[in-house]
Design goal:
The complex is a heterodimer of chains A (85) and B (607). Chain A has one domain (4-81): Ferrous iron transport protein A (FeoA) (SH3 type barrels). Helices cover 14% and strands 34% of the residues of chain A. Chain A has helices at 31-38, 72-75; strands at 8-9, 18-24, 46-51, 59-63, 66-70, 78-81. Chain A has a six-stranded antiparallel sheet. In chain A, strand 3 and strand 4 form a beta hairpin. Chain B is α/β, with parallel strands linked by helices. A seven-stranded mixed sheet of chain B has the order 2-3-4-1-5-6-7, with helices on both faces. Chain B has a two-stranded antiparallel ribbon with strand order 8-9. In chain B, helix 16 packs across helix 17, helix 16 packs antiparallel against helix 24 (547-559) and helix 21 (500-509) packs antiparallel against helix 22 (515-523). Classes of the chains: A alpha+beta (85), B alpha/beta (607). The A-B interface holds A 31-32, 34-40, 42, 44-45, 48, 50-51, 53-58, 60, 62-71, 73-74 and B 58-59, 61-64, 93-97, 100-101, 183, 187, 190, 194-195, 198, 200-201, 204-205, 208-209, 212-214, 217, 302, 306-307, 309-310, 313, 319, 422-427. Bound molecules: guanosine-5'-triphosphate. Guanosine-5'-triphosphate binds at residues 8, 10-16, 56, 121-122, 124-125, 150-152, 297, 431, 434 of chain B.
């Protein structure tokens, strides 16, 4: 998948907004990316930012019926695109 | 004899199902051919079947060394020759989450020739929310039997057991599937079969909005933590007192029927006294595990970890260390147990480093005595602020900061304890906790503590008793071997302005910190110093303990690891006596240096 200009990291998603996962940095080559994929953060999946707690705390994301809290460094590995609609 | 292996992702309800299948008969043992401890029990309906509760991971790709161990354990067990059945527990409400894992396990099972059954759990939630899962379709797509169950209500369990015990001869069709295809298929299965609708996520997000909001979340956090400590101290204190008085009562009853003399003294003071001193921890372990377990089950603990992640990561720790550290403010023993849930060994070791420095409740009587000696019982601002209370808060703050700062230093110094682990934490849905399994788990932990840490603690108690009792038969502590030891090590404490009497009390306090008060009471001839420290405080103040030495003692007790129980349990849980002894020695040296610095400084400033 080519990196297009309208790709943003998951961390940049506003609370309540959804997007589609475009790619994950280091796809399947390191353990963290592999884990993200295994728990549901896969290319093409829709992901939603549920909550942005204050003070830079890890944020809450919903993907595939489950909710996860990811810190900044981890969320920034995930690149998303806005759905066309 | 058949082995039934339970496998499943964290929060899939594997433990709940295990409890239902075995009737809470949980114990820990080695799976045949594997040296790692695995939870085990026998099937309620068929005692010939042993159920094994394998540690949950999210997939067969490890994120940490600890997970790799769990995964290797599972793989070895699957490949061993034993007659084994495999049950994969899968959360129906979060199907996407376990899809890869399920297919990976199916592949392992097919390769090893072991039958696999999928238990689709949490079906009660699916039903009550009017959702739908195509169970037979899922079974066809996977090529293995899928049985809908609910570990909460028990629905479907009879059918599930029947299917498990009469496995079909067909193996799962995934034996030769490469990783890429597994991932792709997991994707498709998630898309096709996951319940549609985000009702579950929405309901949870609504509560999270409050409990994680910048302002409301902060308020809720403070309120919940206050309740937490209230509950621990109001429930555990009477239980602990109860245990202690029962042990003492039995001890004196036994001693009273024996002729006076050394045997009776030994039974009364060493055996029952020693027993009482560590048995009191058992109710504390029980209560704390109970409350933490209920909070964990309710879903709040994961949120608390999230809230504390940023501040803790500043000190090299992570949000997952929060619960152990919090428990450490009550007592290090349950805190060390609480760290079991941390999957990364490095993070866990760093948490172990910080726990003994948290201001535990055994330090409270020591601080109370020293404050009574050092600080006048006066108030300021028209009775609004008591100086003694303020001093106590200050000491607590000092203790917590020391714990965090030491963790920060250690994590930067030592690569084996620090880690740049990604923070990925599943937020389970909010649920009403189910009490019975939590009570049973709390009870097991309390018993584990008594069995595993008991012998070491007991041995040390007996040694200290012997030193204090001989050569004069317990007549006079000041001429005992213990006192001789105190005089021998006096040079160690004299730089802090402390004489041999404090030396003895400090040695004795390595049994448990609060012993310090009782020992000084004995030396200064004040019985019942434990209940009423005021008289002892007067005596000590009159005997000329300087303020600088008093401060040095406070600092010493804040840092030193004076607790046999903690050292014994640390060695057990860290699986390294060396780690525990190193910690003991380091904190002794650090405590002395810090105390000496404070003493030297205070001697200059206060005179
Ligand atoms: N409603 C409902 N809740 C369930 C069911 N099974 C388990 N739970 C709850 O789900 C939560 C997680 O269950 P556990 O049994 O601790 O899950 P686990 O898979 O062992 O998870 P770890 O202990 O983290 O490995 C608990 O609060 C259970 O009470 C079920 O069938 N229905």
């Amino acid at each position: 998948m080519s990196t297009s200009a309208n790709q943003t990291s998951l961390w940049a998603l506003a609370a309540g907004d959804s997007a589609v996962i475009a790619s994950i940095d280091g796809h399947a080559t390191d353990a963290t990316s592999q884990r993200l994929i295994d728990i549901g953060f896969r290319e093409g999946q829709s992901v939603m930012c549920l909550l942005k707690p204050g003070f830079g705390a890890p944020r809450v994301f919903a993907v595939g019926g489950a909710t996860y809290s990811l810190d900044r460094a981890t969320a920034e590995r995930i690149k998303t695109i806005k759905p066309a609609s | 004899m058949t082995n039934l292996l339970l496998v499943g992702a964290p929060n899939s309800g594997k433990s709940a199902l295990f409890n239902k299948l075995t009737g809470l008969s949980h114990k820990v043992a080695n799976y045949p051919g594997i040296t790692v401890d695995v939870g085990t029990g026998t099937l309620k309906s068929d005692p010939n079947v042993t159920v094994w509760d394998f540690p949950g991971t999210y997939s067969l790709n490890a994120l940490s060394g600890e997970e790799q161990v769990a995964i290797d354990t599972l793989k070895t067990a699957l490949r061993s020759d034993d007659d084994a059945l495999v049950a994969m527990v899968w959360d129906a409400t979060r199907l996407e989450k376990g899809a890869t894992y399920c297919l990976q396990v199916a592949r392992e099972c097919a390769q090893a020739g072991k039958p696999l059954v999928v238990l689709l759990n949490m079906m009660d939630v699916i039903e009550s929310d009017g959702l739908d899962v195509d169970v037979s379709g899922l079974s066809k797509a996977l090529g293995v039997p899928v049985l809908p169950v609910s570990a909460r209500t028990g629905d479907g369990l009879i059918e599930a057991e029947a299917a498990l015990l009469a496995p079909s001869p067909d193996l799962a069709p995934w034996a030769d599937t490469p990783d890429m295809l597994i991932a792709g298929t997991a994707n498709q299965i998630g898309d096709r079969f996951a319940p549609k609708g985000d009702l579950l996520v929405r309901r949870q997000a609504h509560i999270d909005h409050w409990l994680l909001g910048t302002f409301t979340g902060g308020v809720a956090f403070v309120v919940i933590m206050t309740l937490f400590f209230q509950a621990i101290f109001t429930w555990a204190a009477p239980l602990m007192d109860g245990v202690e008085s029962i042990v003492i009562a039995i001890g004196s009853a036994v001693a009273s029927v024996m002729p006076e003399g050394i045997v009776s003294d030994f039974v009364n003071d060493a055996i029952f006294g020693g027993l009482g001193a560590f048995l009191v921890f058992a109710p504390l372990v029980f209560i704390l595990t109970l409350i933490v377990g209920a909070m964990e089950d309710s879903g709040y603990l994961a949120r608390a970890a999230l809230i504390c992640h940023r501040p803790l990561s500043f000190f090299g720790l992570s949000g997952k260390s929060f619960v152990p550290l919090l428990s450490g403010v009550a007592c290090a023993i349950p805190a060390i147990y609480a760290a079991r849930t941390m999957s990364s060994r490095q993070e866990r070791l760093l948490t172990y480093v910080a726990i003994p420095l948290m201001p535990c409740s055994a330090r409270l009587p020591v601080y109370a005595l020293l404050i009574a000696i050092l600080i006048p019982d006066e108030t300021a601002l028209g009775g609004l602020i008591g100086w003694q209370g303020l001093a106590m808060s200050g000491i607590y703050f000092f203790g917590i900061m020391t714990a965090l700062l030491v963790a920060a230093v250690v994590s930067r110094m030592d690569d084996t304890t620090s880690s740049e682990q990604a923070f990925i934490l599943e937020l389970p849905p909010y649920r009403l906790p189910e009490l019975r399994p939590i009570i049973s788990k709390s009870f097991n932990r309390a018993m584990h503590f008594i069995r595993k840490a008991g012998s070491v603690i007991f041995a040390v108690t007996v040694v200290v008793w012997f030193l204090g009792y001989f050569p004069n038969g317990g007549e006079d502590l000041s001429t005992s071997w213990l006192a001789a030891l105190g005089r021998f090590i006096e040079p160690v404490f004299s730089p802090l302005g402390l004489d041999w009497r404090y030396g003895i009390a400090i040695i004795a306090s390595f049994l448990a910190r609060e012993v310090f008060v009782g020992t000084l009471g004995t030396i200064f001839g004040i019985e019942s110093a434990d209940e009423d420290p005021a008289a002892l405080a007067d005596q000590i103040a009159a005997s000329g303990l300087t303020a600088a030495s008093g401060l040095a003692l406070v600092v010493f007790f804040t840092i030193a690891l004076q607790c046999v129980s903690t050292v014994a349990l640390l060695a057990r849980e860290a699986k390294s006596s060396q780690f525990a002894l190193k910690l003991l020695a380091s904190y002794m040296v650090l405590a002395w240096i810090a105390a000496w610095l404070v003493y030297s400084l205070a001697s200059v400033v206060l005179t």
